[in-house]
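Section 5.1 Outputs to date
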Amino acid sequence: MSAFGVKRTFVARAGLAKMKAKRTAFQGDAAMKIDGACHCGFIAYEAEADPEMTGICHCTDCQTLSGSAFRCVVPARQGSFKLRSGELKIYVKTAESGTKRQQAFCPNCGTPLYSTTVDDGPKVHTIRVGTLRQRDEFVPKLQYWFRSAQHWTDDLGSIPKTEKQR
């Protein structure tokens, strides 16, 4: 492994420990009210979330389920998620660890909205940041499952950009 790879792993682990410590203390004291919707507008929701908890997941499940190289997510404060309109479609996936997670999406346009546990009781909804109306305020603070990251995601800044589709 390259020295850069070692550094990436160390930084990711240090960041994850910091985020876990904050998650333990996360009671919504830094949370803000958020709302969002799917692409077609059939599903609308509201919740509370702390922008400092925003992360990027590089796991292969997120790559497949998002159709991209990673997924940007933020956990909502436990019990704060409220569906404002529509009826979700749920898919239950089994993670590498064996843990089952509900994946909620719009049955009309297919927009992924959140994941959560399958058990009963209060839930933490891990919201897909791209569905938030306030998405500009949710800047990722940590990347996790970095062992699965696509190698080219390290240097996105070097890829030429256009303002719109070319």
